[in-house]
TrEMBL record, chain A:
The lineage of its organism: Eukaryota, Metazoa, Chordata, Craniata, Vertebrata. This is Dual specificity mitogen-activated protein kinase kinase 5. The keyword Kinase applies. Residues 50-63 have a biased composition (Low complexity). GO terms for cellular component: cytoplasm; plasma membrane. It comes from the Eukaryota. GO terms for molecular function: kinase activity. Keywords: Kinase, Transferase.
TrEMBL record, chain B:
PROSITE patterns: WD_REPEATS_2, WD_REPEATS_REGION. WD repeats lie at residues 250-291. Residues 1-335 form the WD repeat-containing protein 54 beta-propeller domain. This is X-linked retinitis pigmentosa GTPase regulator-interacting protein 1. GO terms for cellular component: centriole; ciliary basal body.
């Protein structure tokens, strides 16, 4: 069969017409999707996904929403933020809204410790950054649709699926910045840095912990499943995502375990020596204070692996002559079933799903919709004492929200992942130099001279079916992304 | 019983690559050399027996003259021949051989990347000294390159290419126990899990092939006619080298095995895996039936570390060392 590991691997051949090797994380198209998807993973789904099967986006339950307390949908945002928060918390705890996550007060922002809340706040802010007269849904859907449309743009995906080397960190960051700014949502540098760090650490965790190398595909599928859920009302975008899904299945489903391991090892080289501490990981005890992830030595072994502890010996005729058991030190159990690698299906694996859900989906094995519905109900019924605190925090964030009108009549908004603008500025100032990026607003032509690598990558995003006057490939990429 | 001893710090952390630790004990100098790969560099450390005095050296995977960009190193290993010791590096670009202390590069072999199949990954991986004067290196296309090493000087030549594997070579092992005439001298393993057993007289010839069963064989060892192979499903399998018959299966680890090592004087086997465990085993042959036997001796957890390299530090297996992904040190254990 024609699928070769090099199509995705990191140890790929050198492109003949390139003078400088370009390591591309996107070489794994998986990664393209995942880089972004994992950045926004759970948080968005949490805000957007209803709790029950029928409940649509959290904040604005549809008229035919299932029984239960009414939708918490402030028709407009004139109410003060605290009032709004109060109202919402009421309805949330009574069970209609999304599962509220435990409120985590932001830890000190001057270090590199991020709280999970911030990412979540982005979403909440998207939802709640309502200019009077603007419907939540419109805003929310617009932002989500913009970003997802950009991400799954056909040309963009074609580029990601081309065989290429691992992206450099700088290149990935640039692409990531552009994607994040593909909508009217605006993040300044400090917030963007924070989001990027969170994304990279979340994805490092997923790649490191995935039980078998092949399961990185399930992680990506979890990302895509969540993305599809955001846009299930937009058939056009849904088609785009499904098309990417099919491409992934075509390209990767036939790879061997060894080839997947090669991909995984290459991704791990990208993430090597990144030890940024993430508060949700610290809190959940999946990350140590030194930034290293905790490796469990109990629980189910990967699919296809036997629980360690048995030696079997055979004689020269192949007959088993002896069995010895031994204790290996861990406390493992057998896996129950393998996740689905199809377009639709139960992935079983929880890595890559919502990392902010209250009761983190534990590795339980349930089957059938009824059971999962039951579990949701149970989660929702349990009031979360920290929810109010979280909402207050969000309310403060909203207070710090600055509304810009970029051009024309369309209002934009700026997101600040810090509690106050001062903190944000402070974080930007104190961020170590090597972690800083000067990327977001790129003058492509100038940049091309400054950074050949980036320029070339941009060049490869060129839209070919729309002839342009511009002679700079870098201009094209930026223009293309602007147009999307 | 083994007890943890002082760790040896590395200048950079180890990458997640199979068999990513090489150990060279220098008994006369009371020193031990360690080598582990980090991306496109190799961290070398020489440590005294108590681990108190350590010196470092970093090797870059420079391409022979045409250094355009750093390529990722896939493995670094010392090859001990009767006449000399060489440090061999494999990378995406080719194979480099250094003097044992890493000071001088004595040989560079570029991988033929003129016409790779489109989008094919190209690299070398799997290093072993064999039959007294050869160094064997595997490639991503499944070839095993056999280099003839003179007792001194740089006149290293590619003497033979073994073409049996269809998948990327993962590891190569040569006999570390008694070398009997006509017995197996070399085992090569690949990504699909297939093993080839070779014997060498004038040339290498295929003795037997052990077929794959769906999991990558990431590490392999050969001791007194017994093949020990570690797989991606955490299993260790023992085979009779001459016939290829399966003699034992061990459900040893919960995750992918990354390293095996054998202490030639005692038959101790060591396995290290992504489940953070190093397990110590003992191989023997039943005096009556000549059946191969294996027992479990010891279990050691390197907390929160996906192990990528583990080795005995002496031929008796009285001490071992291990390193893992993202870990900037070599943890050492000694027998008490």
């Amino acid at each position: 069969m024609g699928i070769r590991v090099g199509q995705i691997t990191p140890f790929p051949f050198k492109r003949p017409n390139l003078s400088i090797t370009r390591p591309l994380i996107g070489s794994c198209p998986l990664l393209g999707a995942l880089a972004t998807a994992s950045a926004f993973p759970g948080a968005w789904s949490r805000r957007l996904r209803g709790t029950g099967p029928a409940a649509p986006a959290g904040h604005e339950a549809a008229p035919q929403a299932p029984p239960g307390p009414g939708p918490c949908r402030p028709a407009r945002c004139r109410c003060s933020s605290s009032t709004w928060a109060g109202r919402c918390s009421t309805s949330w705890t009574s069970g209609c809204g999304p599962r509220a996550s435990p409120g985590r007060r932001p830890a000190k922002m001057n270090g590199q410790m991020w709280t999970g809340n911030e990412l979540e706040s982005v979403i909440t802010l998207v939802v709640s950054s309502c200019v009077p007269g603007f419907c939540f849904k419109w805003k929310l859907v617009a932002v989500m649709n913009d970003i997802i449309t950009t991400m799954f743009n056909k040309k963009f995906m074609e580029e990601l699926f081309k065989p290429q080397e691992l992206y450099s960190k700088k290149a990935l960051r640039t692409v990531y910045d552009r994607l994040a700014h593909a909508s009217i949502m605006r993040l300044n540098q400090a917030s963007m840095d924070k989001l990027y760090d969170l994304m990279t650490m979340a994805f490092k965790y997923q790649v490191l912990l995935c039980p078998r190398p092949k399961d990185i595909l399930l992680v990506t599928f979890n990302h895509l499943d969540a993305i599809k859920d955001f846009i299930r009302d937009s058939p056009n975008i849904l088609n785009q995502v499904d098309e990417t899904f099919r491409q992934l299945i075509d390209m990767y489903s036939c790879l061997s375990a060894g080839e997947f391991q090669l991909i995984r090892q290459t991704l791990l080289i990208f993430f090597q020596d990144m030890h940024i501490r993430v508060s949700i990981f610290l809190k959940d005890k999946v990350q140590n204070s030194n930034g290293r992830f905790v490796l469990p030595i109990s629980g189910p072994v990967p699919w296809g692996t036997e629980v360690p502890g048995l030696i079997r010996m055979f004689n020269c005729n192949g007959d088993e002559v002896k069995r010895i058991e031994f204790t290996n030190g861990g406390n493992y159990i057998s896996p129950q079933r393998e996740g689905s690698f199809d377009l639709y299906g139960d992935r079983v694996l929880k890595l890559g799903t919502n990392m902010y859900s209250v009761s983190r989906p534990v590795e339980t094995h349930m089957s059938g919709a009824s059971k999962s519905l039951a579990s949701h109900t149970k989660e929702n019924a349990a009031p979360n004492p920290l929810a109010k605190e979280e909402l207050n925090f969000l309310a403060r964030l909203m207070g710090g929200l600055e509304i810009k009108k970029p051009n024309g009549s369309e209002p934009g908004f700026r997101l600040n992942l810090f509690t106050t603008d001062e903190e944000e500025e402070y974080a930007a100032l104190t961020r170590p130099e090597e972690l800083s990026y000067k990327v977001i607003n790129i003058q492509a032509t100038q940049d091309q001279q400054q950074n050949e690598e980036l320029a070339r990558i941009m060049g490869e995003f060129e839209v070919t079916d729309q002839p342009r006057q511009s002679t700079s490939k870098g201009d094209d990429l930026l223009a293309m992304m602007d147009e999307l | 019983m083994y007890r943890k001893e002082r760790s040896v710090p590395l200048k950079s952390s180890s990458s997640a690559l199979y068999n990513n630790l090489s150990v060279l004990p220098l008994r006369d100098k009371q020193l031990t050399y360690f080598a582990a790969v980090h991306g496109s560099t190799v961290s070398l450390a020489s440590a005294s027996a108590d681990g108190l005095s350590v010196s470092h050296r970093q090797l870059q995977a420079k391409e022979g003259g045409l250094a355009v960009s750093a390529s990722i190193v896939t493995q670094a290993s010392w090859c001990v021949l009767p006449s000399r010791v060489l440090l061999v590096l494999t990378s995406q670009k080719g194979i480099q051989m250094y003097e044992s202390d890493g000071s001088i590069m004595v040989y560079w072999h570029a991988l033929d990347v003129l016409e790779p199949p489109p989008a094919q990954a190209v690299f070398a991986r799997g290093i072993a000294a064999a039959s007294g004067r050869f160094i064997c290196v595997g490639t991503s296309s499944g070839l095993v390159l056999v280099f003839d090493i003179p007792s001194k000087g740089t006149n290293i030549t590619l003497s033979e290419v073994l073409e049996e594997h269809r998948d990327s070579i993962t590891d190569i092992a040569s006999e570390v126990g008694e070398n009997l005439d006509g017995a197996a001298d070399l085992v090569t393993a690949d990504d699909s899990g297939a093993l080839c057993v070779w014997t060498s007289k004038e040339e290498f010839s295929l003795l037997t092939k052990i077929s794959a069963f769906g999991w990558t064989c990431s590490s392999v060892k050969l001791w007194n006619g017994v093949i020990a192979a570690g797989y991606g499903n955490g299993q260790i399998r023992l085979y009779e080298a001459t016939s290829g018959a399966l003699r034992a299966t061990v459900s040893a680890h919960a995750r992918w095995i990354y390293a095996l090592d054998l202490a030639p004087l005692t038959g101790k086997l060591l396995s290290g895996a992504e489940d953070s465990y190093v397990q110590i085993w003992k191989l023997s042959r039943s005096p009556d039936t000549r059946d191969i036997e294996i027992e479990h001796c010891h279990s050691e957890c390197v907390t929160d570390t996906q192990l990528c390299g583990a080795r005995f530090c002496d031929p008796e297996g009285n001490a071992f060392a291990a390193t893992g992904y993202d870990l900037s040190e070599i943890v050492r254990y000694g027998q008490v």
